[in-house]
Specification:
single chain, 518 residues, Rossmann fold, GMP Synthetase, Chain A, domain 3, nine-stranded mixed sheet, four-stranded parallel sheet, 17 helices, globular, binds adenosine monophosphate
Length: 518
């Protein structure tokens, strides 16, 4: 078996360039490659010998962005285990569901999350280790263990995406998938040289974390802001001390960066990669005005991480090109590692410019969902990943995303699945029907709005949500109506509802200001 363990890259970096900085926390360098590799090796030894975990076991990580995330991730891989990074903003009940579903035997958690998890911890979870706590420090004292060999098809990262059924599904990202993804990024989006920085402003459990491997492979520096989250002035302040740095940012984050950019020098900024949600063309133009040829775009999803299409720096900056605006409005062209097709309901390729579902296949696509053969078969039918996104390919291969067929709401860079919120609201006795939609919002991308048939007080609906789901998923406004628009089969027509909501928005007196995600 050829060893494909992703953790080999860290071991090799430590041998080739032991003194090179590997990890930063705020302005400080906290580990060289030799130090990071040693800590990952120690943690791997402790996981195997003290916690008695065996290759293939799942280990969860639930914390705000923290530098330890990287040594934990590589320690897990070094020991032949699989990582399950979980969004720190989830409600404890949601976290408990994921821990149970993936069968995690151990979890590394932030202090606040450890306290909240309590009764929601599943029976199979043997250990919840507080990151930075005494037990954590003790694990780090083990003598480093040799790396455990892994094959391409072995599970490396279980990436939970909330499904339309309201229950999260675990996309199985193997060592092979993450290897293809990282190589594709380095070859087609951003070559990384030793010492180049990556600033983790977006969540490391999700978008930003996937960039770690490419930067370790090419010996860049992963830098975690002290705030553990996204704060535009903090990002610019970090750039002072970390030259040649890049970051991944959701479009709403790019907008916030544009607002502050004038106050800071940009010489140290290498690339802003945007993705995860659609960007309005006007915003892309403003970003280009501010940042120049430092922008790239990626379109991917958990099931084909970071790797469906990409719009390069040169394409974004080529204002003289006759089709520049069309290209700017698109998500670019397919990565070399995947085939992309736009298909009709029977999976037949559609002609240029016709809209249909976006399908994708290739080395970056997951082999299936964890313990969900039905959803895996449906999503991967015919050997193609069915993305659930609607788009069109033009004659030159540029893909424009039209809509998300799954009606996902993306607010402040986080995905919110309407059905999950609807199910909670329907628990109220006075709610007869409900439909949740996203309303475009300049600051947050979208905000959650609930259309309710029934007499329930908004405060009681809010309380129900606070009790069951993450705060950021809570509707920012409840609108009480006599009936919801429906088709002949009784299915609620969300498109009509969104249109109705948009026309209300043009009557300002009827719209209270929207609260942002909290
Ligand atoms: P996730 O699996 O949570 O990463 O969410 C993936 C979804 O985000 C995709 O299926 C798209 O709907 C959306 N998305 C990702 N990248 C882009 C992009 N560059 N432009 C528009 N939407 C995007």
């Amino acid at each position: 078996m050829i060893d494909r363990n992703l953790a080999l890259a860290l071991v090799q970096a430590a041998m080739a360039a032991p003194e090179l900085p590997a990890l930063g926390h705020g302005a400080r360098m906290v580990a060289t490659y030799a130090q990071l590799a040693r800590r990952a090796g120690s943690l791997a030894a402790a996981l195997r010998q003290r916690l008695r975990l065996v290759p293939g076991d799942r280990v969860a990580i639930a914390a705000r962005n923290t530098p330890e995330f990287i040594e934990i991730l590589y320690g897990i891989w070094h020991a032949g285990l699989a990582a399950v990074p979980v969004n720190a903003k989830l409600h404890a009940a949601e976290l408990g569901y994921i821990l149970d579903h993936c069968g995690a035997r151990a979890a590394f958690v932030g202090r606040d999350i450890a306290a909240a998890l309590g009764a929601h911890a599943p029976a199979g979870l043997e250990r919840a280790i507080v990151i930075g706590g005494d037990e954590y420090a003790a694990l780090m004292t083990a003598d480093p263990a040799p790396i455990i060999a892994r094959a391409r098809d072995d599970l490396a990262w279980l990436f939970y995406t909330s499904g339309t059924t309201g229950r999260p599904k675990g996309a199985q990202l193997t060592h092979g998938v993450l290897d293809v993804m990282s190589r594709a990024y380095l070859a087609e989006v951003d070559p990384v040289a030793p010492g180049d920085g990556l600033l983790h402003g977006a969540p490391m459990s999700h978008g930003s974390g996937l960039y770690i491997m490419a930067h370790v492979a090419n010996r860049g520096v992963n830098i975690v802001p002290e705030s553990g989250g996204f704060d535009a002035p903090e990002i610019f302040a970090l750039l002072r001390g970390w030259p040649r740095s890049s970051l991944f940012a959701a479009p709403t984050m790019v907008n916030r960066l544009i607002e502050c950019a004038a106050d800071f020098p940009l010489d140290h900024l290498r690339t802003i990669v945007w993705g995860g949600a659609p960007m309005y063309v006007e915003d892309a133009r403003r970003a280009l005005d501010r940042f120049g040829a430092r922008l790239a775009q990626i379109y991917g999803q958990g099931e084909s991480p970071m790797t469906i299409t990409r719009l390069t720096r040169a394409e974004i900056a080529d204002r003289e090109h006759p089709r520049w605006i069309d290209r700017l409005a698109s998500a670019g062209r397919a990565f070399g590692a995947v085939d992309v097709m736009v298909a009709d309901a029977d999976d037949r390729a559609l002609p240029a410019d016709a809209a249909g579902e976006i399908l994708c296949r290739g080395g970056a696509v997951m082999p299936g969902y964890w313990r969900d053969p039905q959803a895996s078969a449906a999503t991967l039918r015919g050997g193609w990943l069915h993305t659930g996104d609607i788009g069109a390919l033009d004659a030159e291969g540029y893909l424009t995303l039209k809509d998300r067929s799954k009606d996902v709401i993306i607010s402040g860079g986080s995905n919110i699945y309407p059905r999950e919120v609807e199910e909670v609201l329907l628990r109220h006795q006075a709610v007869r029907e409900v439909s949740v939609i996203g309303r475009p919002d300049r600051q947050w991308g979208e905000v959650v709005v609930a259309y309710v048939v029934g007499e329930a007080p908004a405060s009681e609906l809010d309380a129900l949500c606070l009790d069951a789901i993450a705060r950021f998923k809570r509707p920012k406004e409840y609108l009480f109506v006599d009936a919801l628009p429906k088709n002949n089969y009784g299915k609620v027509l969300k498109t009509q509802l969104r249109a109705r909501d948009a026309s209300r928005a043009q009557t300002p007196q009827s719209m209270p200001p929207a609260r942002g995600p909290t």
